Amino acid sequence: MITVLVVEDTNSERELICDYLRQGGYAVVSAANGTEGLEKFSKTNPNAVITDLVMPGMSGLELCRAIKKVAVGKVPVIACTSKSQELDRLWGMKQGVDVYLTKPFTKEDILQALRSLGLGG
Q1: Looking at residue 121, what is its pLDDT?
Q2: Which in 23, 67, 71, 109 has the greatest CB count within 10 A?
Q3: CB of 68 within 8 A of CB of 76?
Q4: Is 121 helix (H, G, I), strand (E, B) or coil?
Q5: Side-by-side strand order, sheet with 3-7
Q6: Is 6 exposed, middle or buried (0-12, 13-18, 19+ CB in 10 A)?
Q7: Do residues 103 and 85 touch, judged by C-beta distance below 8 A?
Q8: Which has the closest alpha carbon to 78: 7, 10, 1?
Q9: Which pLDDT does position 72 carry in this prediction?
Q10: Taking the chain (121 residues) in consecutive chunks of 10 residues, what is each chunk's mean pLDDT?
Q11: What is the C-alpha to C-alpha distance for residues 78 and 99, in angstroms, rounded to an integer?
């Protein structure tokens, strides 16, 4: 089963993304911030990461860079953020983000992002 780590500091959004993923047939690990996300990443070796970019402490981009350093093999990172400017998207891609989703998003947006990376649930 494909495991996805969800890192989002807003409880309601984290739960929503986790529900969407479970409905799509994915195993889910969740974290409330970047530091916890990095710890869970190391423990669970997920197949992909979905992260918010604006979080207290470690931002999603810092998390993305840290994951890319410690990952064995390629682990795609999907940014799910309210930062919708083209410059934000380009900067995110430069930092290692593989797919950039802006809020609000639908269940289909999330599942399509994973499928686009070859991670069908």
Answers
A1: 61
A2: 67
A3: no
A4: coil
A5: 27-31, 3-7, 48-51, 77-81, 99-102
A6: buried
A7: no
A8: 7
A9: 87
A10: 97 97 98 98 97 95 95 94 91 94 95 95 61
A11: 5
